[in-house]
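Consider this pair:
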Amino acid sequence: MKPFWKTSLIAAVTAIAIASFSPASTSATNAAPATPVNQSTTTEAEELCGKPTLDALAQHKVKQDETLESIAKQYNLKTATLMGLNPEVRNGQVKVGQTLAIAPMDGLVYRFKNDENYTTIAKKYNVRADVLFERNGCQRRPQVVFVPGAIWKPDPVPFNPSAIARGSGDSTVIMQAGGYPLPYTVPVTSNYGWRMNPVTAIWSFHSGIDLGASFGTPVLAAKTGVVEFAGWGGGYGNLIELDHGSTGTRYAHLEAIFVYQGQKVAKGQQIGLVGSTGRSTGPHLHFEMMVTTGDGWVALDPAPYLNRIASVILNLFV
């Protein structure tokens, strides 16, 4: 434990450093100049803070049979923390021999933009500015910082009609109108109902069905409807929700989203790509079907619907 006088010194220097970056301090042109911080005091405070978190990352070499989830669990981290620090595993996959940067705690890497400072970043991620300052070695003007406790997530995927039509520019291209959420049938890798969650290892209810499609497979609207939601959905990763009137469908863990909220889509229209974002152990499509009740939307088992549609598709080729 640090002696009380050292803790007080860090707090004092932190307060001065943060205050010096606040909007008020930069706009008060007529105020009396602040007393400069003694250089020896600043140096001692930096020594007390220790290395910035980004300078003290550990390394992990991926071994046989390890997954992103198992490595995260080994270090008591979220998979999102590993994905944020290691761009090469943002598809949710690791390869034997890869070397991953490991943070001592959950958080994300953030690069300062113009006019940003510890105070604005602390407010943005709901962390204490003094903790943010100390975790980054009490550096006055860093370009990149580690934000403890913040959760990394991919940048929003912009709407790109040309990508849907593969260069045709037609954003209403229909790949198939049978109602199956993929261009072809694939095996079911996890059914609707109670199961042992493969990520958390906790017995929980799985409100949809997982379809084992490969990374980048087009995802199609099962029915004509309106995009109720398109964006980041927490554990769902990149998520699309379609409203079909009395029913709704969800498409989760997407690598890319090709529609936007409020857009009308046709049955069979491509709306995204299969991925492994959010709480996922590998590329697949998590598909849900919902109906409206007096208590709101309720998830149903999609298996009967998918089996019926799949049999129709297969019969077309028999």
